[in-house]
Amino acid sequence: xxxxxxxxxxxxxxxxxxxxxxxxxxxxxxxxxxxRVARDLRVSITEKCSLRCTYCMxxxxxxxxxxxxxxxxxxxxxxxGIGVRDLGMHDVRFTGGEPLxxxxxxxxxxxxxxxxxxxxxxxxxxAIGLDKRVDALVAAGLNRVxxxxxxxxxxxxxxxxxxxxxxxxxxxxxxxxxAGVKPLxxxxxxxxxxxxxxxxxxxxxxxxxxxxxxxxxxxxxxDESWARDNMVDAAELLAVLGERFELTAPTRExxxxxxxxxxxxxxxxxxxIIASVxxxxxxxxxxxxxxxxxxxxxxxxxDDETDLRxxxxxGADDHTIAEWWRxxxxxxxxxxxxxxxxxxxxxxxxxxIGG
Length: 355
What we know:
Elements: H1 3-6, E1 11-12, E2 30-31, E3 37-38, E4 40-44, H2 73-85, E5 91-95, H3 105-115, E6 120-125, H4 130-140, E7 144-148, H5 154-161, H6 166-178, E8 184-190, H7 198-207, E9 211-216, H8 234-242, E10 247-251, E11 260-264, E12 270-274, E13 287-290, E14 295-297, E15 305-307, H9 309-313, H10 318-330, H11 350-353
Parallel strand pairs: 1-15, 4-5, 4-13, 5-6, 6-7, 7-8, 8-9, 9-12
Antiparallel strand pairs: 2-3, 10-11, 11-12, 13-14, 14-15
Helix pairs in contact: 2-3, 2-10, 3-4, 4-6
């Protein structure tokens, strides 16, 4: 396979060639050239997943990352510590692939929580197997969980994910609630063939005390089948939901939060809409991403990555790693440009980047 077929971007590995910091102000924060400051750390810990969602994974799964190339639990915790202590991270979210595929996930959470100095520790998961591990994860320091669920119709779920595992997901959600994980958020990707079930999913979420958020599909699918003309946008979804529910004009609790929150039938229940494509929030983005191989990715749609794993394993101290991290984020692009004529898809798919 070629590098392009594997979906691997160009990675800066030469320790003598730190990304340019020309014009960067003297601040410890992860500021970029557009004045945005990253405070939200997304940490992908595996490329493996127990599902094969059509908007994310190819049917055969992603190419396996050699075990020696994955960050260890100790290395992940060290970078989390640098992110929180030296760079001002407030929130740390573990993603995949599917985080529950890591057998050492409890250790990852525990070690990270120990150095996180009060920062929120959360996870995005499909919840398969969560019922067997949630108590240990909460005891280790997990604060919040976002669960990916696009439909509550079992047949539709099986077609979309290529796996008949809806009962396992629902068991994971029930277990998380029993463990006291609040708020429990549900993430649903808007697809043409699931739009008809959006009303049922919102009704189910309201009845089960979950905070549902719909997400516009982005061109990050491994099969590269995304097409702008076929995408379900926020306006179309609102029209469908409006036939069954009364939706009150949206608010955004945090300017950097991606979701607009609508009150449903006067509240207290809400539904969030993350209009990543049609109502871009790139100008307020506050995220920095660490891949499972230990590279910093400043943007979902920016293929330049800076290797921190090599620095760590080469003996670099925390100060040096923090400086490289700052340099990587200084070069962050302005936005994704999905709607531009010259838009180029990133080489990595969502499953290889982490949400």
